[in-house]
Amino acid sequence: MRPHNLKACFLFLFLLAMATLHAQTTFRGLMRKADQLYETNAFAPAVDVYRQALEKDATDPDALGKLAECYRLLNRLDEAEATYLKLIRSRKYQDRQLLLYAHCLKGLGRYDEAKVYYQSYAKVNPTVGNQFVQSCDFSKTNLNIPTAYTVITERINSTSSDFGPAFMNDQLIFASLRTEGQTFSSTKSSLYSAGMGSDGSLQPAIVVRPGISDFSIGPASFSSDGRNAATTKNNFTPGVRQIPGTGLDLSIILADVNFNGSWYNERAFTNNDTKGRTGFPCLTPDGNAMFFASDREGGFGGWDLYISYKEGANWSRPINLGPAVNTPGDEITPYFDGINLYFASDYHLGFGGFDVFMAEQGEGRWLKSTNLGQPVNSSADDYGMIMDSYRNFGYMVSNRSGGVGMEDIYRVTKGGSNVVVNPGTNPGTNPGTGNPNTGRTRIRVFSGSDGIALPGASVDLTNCMRGVSNYILLTDAQGYIDLPVGAGTECEVTVRADGYMQFRGAMSAYFAPNRDIEIPLTKAGEEYFGRVVNSNSREFIPNVQIAARNTYTGNITRTATDYSGNYVLSLSRNTPYTITYSAPNYNEETRSINVLNGTDRTILGVMNMVPLGNGGWNTNPGTGNTGNTGNTGNTGSQLERAGFAIQVSAVSGQPDLSKFSNLRSIASVYTKNEAGKNKIKVGNFPTREEAQRQLENVKRMGYPGAFIVTDDGVSLTSSFPPSNPPVSTNPPLTNPPLTNPPITNPPVTNTGGRFMIQLGAYRDLRNFNGSKLVGMGTVMDRPRQDLTIKLLCCYNSAAEAFNALGRVQQAGFSGAFVVEDLNGQLVRAK
């Protein structure tokens, strides 16, 4: 190339570079660069470029608006508020920017100022504007009002983002974007594990390597046995709020977990939405259902909460939780403790960005959502709440000021609020007899079978009283104590009386003054088990109110079904009773029974309740329910709906159904005469999928040749109703009064795997409390001389049993160990 041509080439390249540099430093060039960063959710670097652009044009509304929004999404609310204010004063703002400015003010706790701008926005959008006007009023009214909760930061937090707490046995699993001591990229979140103390305090965290694909994962969720896992594949960025509007791209991954904690069989959740995002999973304790959040079409607002049920290898179509939970705003991070649903919302009346709420259910649906108040909630983002209702502590996530990092994990402890002890009394003594006109709530303890008051019964409220040990009150001559805790308390209460079975159950003090909580105690040998189901669908009906009237004395014993439709009544021998069943949306049912000599614990059987306006399958509700009427025994005819059943055997002669009694924990056991054979079946089930799920349980219980058959729903030859699950859970004590289901276990025969967990040996079964073992397995009894061995059954391998052992020990059975059943002999496994 000639010299003058070479100079011309260099000159051209120089001018091109200068032109490019000039374009990048001009206002429009900077805006293009900043917008590209903004559109890719790179908000932190976009801030620097927008600020450079504003140095060239300080009043440009587009630059001011996007800079303010970057600050807001980065949780730099002071800077966001100041920038939005400049924009609004220029009068070149868009309507939505007025709303976002008000959000910034609310997030800073400046509720009076925020209310003014929400009122202005209400002129454009009355629904949304007025909702947040009410939210400001709510915040001011409830500011600094004490609640039952305390919140403290945890030492596991890093300077980065720590989020997504989840229980797994005695460990807390959480996600983090930290890089301290790690070699992996800071742009991916990983799972960590920290041991939990008895008070919820956490040990130093270690990284968890689940062995799944190299995604950025968290939050996660686990079934109670630790064998099923669900996690969120996320695109969280350090420093950016983990909320809708920040470009979230989430989906759910499912996996199985083996005994050493490694994940396998990784797969995408079948209900991940191709047009929207899905995340924040919460598996139910049994792993057969999952709550999650999604912004899919057809919801109430932005992100809604849904539930899906496992159907074999697939999952059912997601069900929206409805308007009591979901709003025109966003709802995220569901956590279900078996009774209540905790979640976060930015639209329900709250203190700031996202607040934590608790939804209550009843009548087969979610009824209302309640803000948990301060200090759980703040003017910042508070979400990711999980709660252990047995130990009264949990964890949550917040980006509130004063934390260690960008998002921190806080420990939440729940106890009594507004604790009052009468003047002149000390903890451990009875404050005196209850006065119906004091405005206080009382506990009444009495015999469940005859209604006689139990004076001198001990009511242990230690779990309800923070900072007080051995808080035990004795009932007065009428069986009463005054309840010395305020509204909002949820705790475990233990009641004991000589000659009666110990009661232990959850107490929720959400009740009105001058109302009594009734706790009937049960004498050993007076407990009778039953179940209530929908006559159409065969689904269990929770919270059915049951009243048993003693025909001789007129005394009424009350109880209610638990979430599985089970209940326990305390009844006297050789006594007739009239029992009434009441539930919303069902016809009231009444039946008469005679307990006779009391040897049949299943006398109550199954009550089929007919939905209102529907004749159902039970054409004679007063008599068509299973169970002994005191005269006919358990072999009367029962009318079933068509569906599917599990056949376990076929015999030529009359079968002895008592040999199959262990299957009553699954469903009714009955026979049908078909083709000259009496076929023993379990069921029936409304769908083949449900039958398939239960088939695996039947096989594990010693019937490997069992198989599914169709059932035409005709009258059965004989039947044995489903039993109460071997470990009974006491329903929460609320008004109206509920009767305690005693913690007892009918004898169960081991027909499952060879390996079991020995829980202990008992002379007095009243000392055994299996309430915390619900969902872990079947509790069975093994007699040994004058002792009863309590066993958790059954496991097919030692590894499976040892994997469950930690959870059992955590539930209070610290001396539990794994045993192997070798030809009827229990041998400690190694």
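That was protein one. Protein two is written in the same sequence-then-structure order:
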Amino acid sequence: MSDGIFIPLINNVALLLAMGALYDIFSFEHKRLSVLKKVISGILIGVIGIAIMSMPLSIVSGVLIDARSILLSVTGLFFGFIPTVIAVAITVAFRLLEGGQGIFAGFLIIVSSSGLGLLCHYWRMNLNESRAVAWWQLYLLGVVTHIMMLFSLLVLPFSTVDLLLSELAIPIMLMFPIVTVLLGILLTHQIERRKAELALKQSEYESDLSRQKLEAIFAAIPDLLFEMDSQGRYYACHSAKKDELIAPEAQLIGKTVFDVMPFEAATTVVEALGEAEIQGLSRGHQIRLPLKQGERVFELSVSLKEGRDYDLPHFIVLSRDITDRKRVEKELHIAATAFDSQEGMLITDSDHAILRVNSAFTRVTGYEPEEVIGENPAILQSGQHGKSFYKEMMTRLQAEKYWQGEIWNKRKSGEIYPQYLTITAVQGGGGEITNYVGAFTDITQRKKDEANIHKLAFYDVLTGLPNRRSLQERLSCAIQSCYLTGQFGAVLFIDLDNFKNLNDTQGHDQGDLLLIEVAHRLSTCVRNADMVARLGGDEFIIVLENLGVEESIALTQVSDIVEKLIVAVQQQVSLDGIQYHTACSVGVTLFDSDDVVDSVMKRSDMAMYQAKESGKNTYKFYDPEAEKTLCSMAALESDLRKALSGKELELHYQAQYRKDELVGAEALVRWFHPERGLVSPAEFIPLAEDTGLIVPIGDWILSQACQQLKEWQSDPNMPSLSIAVNVSARQFMQEHFVAEVADCINRYDIQPDLLKLELTESLVLQDIEDTIDKMNQIRKLGIRFSLDDFGTGYSSLLHLKRLPLDQIKIDRSFIRDVIEDKDDAEIVQAIIAMGHNLGLNVIAEGVETEAQCMFLAEHGCTDYQGYLFGKPLPVDDFETACAKKRLAC
């Protein structure tokens, strides 16, 4: 076969390969290919046929030998009827247009090859052949097609046929079936690829559809889904609500429950997995997890996952949030418990028929459930309330859907009892009342307790008289009554005299008996409209009302009543066989509409103390001047307490001389009030004694004196001066007084013999043995003692001998008139002589004249203190005066 034959055939084959692209573009294997696509593809195939026919193998003029037979047979087989017919029409038309002696043969070739292709196409369709066309089937089609092609040439003249067959028969039969196979295989491959692509698309579509369905199913499931192994390791998770996950999904995968959960919850999960591994299924395990919205409770359902071979068993874990369910269960449990609580409860329908009662209802009312179910609660009515009461109850229930209050009901036994009832109307969805719920408590005991509490709150337990609280209410009402009537009233404040002695000697039982008897006697002395109350202890109050509009008349009436009750109280009383006499002091004050309770009580209290000060067993009307004095003392006491912390106290020093030599000083406290100025010691020292403030004041004086001694010890001009400090009875009797004195000496590191403590005669005689013991302990510290105001008390020589004294001080009252008064002179001489005989130093205070000093010196007293030698001075002035004295000397 020459190159002239081979090259056109190769060009034809190349054009045939364009069919593969065309087939791939129009997807002819798709059963639903549109008619338009089929027409277009037929036209394009026809164009390819024209192109093939335009490059024929020309051996004989007018005869076109080309590869149209391959094109059209394969078109019929793979493209179907419409594209084939259109391609046939186009190629026939082109062949007719070309003309020549081979027109009819060309027509036969076109029709036979396309017809054979269509025949094979419909044959495969009838057989429902879904398999790809085999190569041998393609080869057979090529052979048959080109045998028919060669037979079609027989219509040509014999000489032409002979030439053509001799030149082309073998090449055509060798090459064209093979080309048919190649083209068919190409198209078959495209068919299979397209099928695979379509199958893949369909698979992807179905996969997407399945995934969407699965996601929709998962989204509809409110629970959490996990895939885990037996160690609790996460492999997959799903949650419709991401905030229910203990951690984001990306952080969970690959981790175990122990990495993300509390240990207790993680342990429970692993236990559930282990149970599912054994039984195939596990349900009911609950865990608590701390999430952003708070702690939540989850219930686990675990099933063993079958199928693939895993290193460890895998499980599907369903986790349901049951927090709300647990809360509802708890509320239901509480509601059930509450219904069967200690309160009686009943539920009725909207027509008031009883539907249910609890056990407490039966216990309180005595009715069994079967006796009251279906009945109206009216069976419990006591008859104590009228119709208007129940009508008002129902009106409130209809309006407010709630009623509560105290009510009297009747038990099955007929006993009427008080109960506290609460009724709540239950509404339906439309707002209509569907039920009534009643809860009640038997308050019988509470009523009794209230009565007892009222009695305890307003009455004295011992005497049965009204107490302070009741008194205040009654007095307040009495003052208001004065406003309405314009009449006076009076309060009598009664205090038994020496009642403490009875308690101390005979015991409190006897004291209680006396109080009961006095309460009875006082009650018999007043009118029924008047009030007798016990204030506390041995104090009683009587409130008298309606004493008239004239003050003088009121005073007369009150005086008569007071005198009567004093006499009544004085009468002898028998206390368990012991005859006892008592008395009382009474303070009286009138009141009117302008008064207030506290003021009236205060005035009567002051008047009572005035009666006490007047000798007891008497009465006194309120005195405004006495009130002023008491108020002044109270204010002074308050200021004195502030003086200690406010540094208002100051020590002054008065010189003590032996002949002409300064030997020491007495420390005297002075109070400089910020408003009143200097307050006299005679005014505030007794007050300090009465209130106990003398103890901290005395401690302060002792500390200041020791501090001053320390400073003088360091001063070369004043190293040997002593300081005398007055010690009060209260201060000396303190348990820790000796230790405090020792602490001061050690703290300031002073010479103890330079400190002198001055005690009064009255102090040392209070408890002589204890006094001597304390004085001896202090004496061992090196401190000296001086007996102050000697001669004014009743100390005996025996006591003076026993006391570890160093000095006695003659009181200023004897020194003042020692020159003019012979008795004072003899007393002073006697004291000096006695002191010398006892080996004691004697010092005289209050020395103000040279005559007094000379008298004392003549009789052997050479230690002096008084204005003659210097007034009490502040420490700076005292030191300056001492310096001047030394210069003068």
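The mean pLDDT is 85. Keep this in mind for the problem set.
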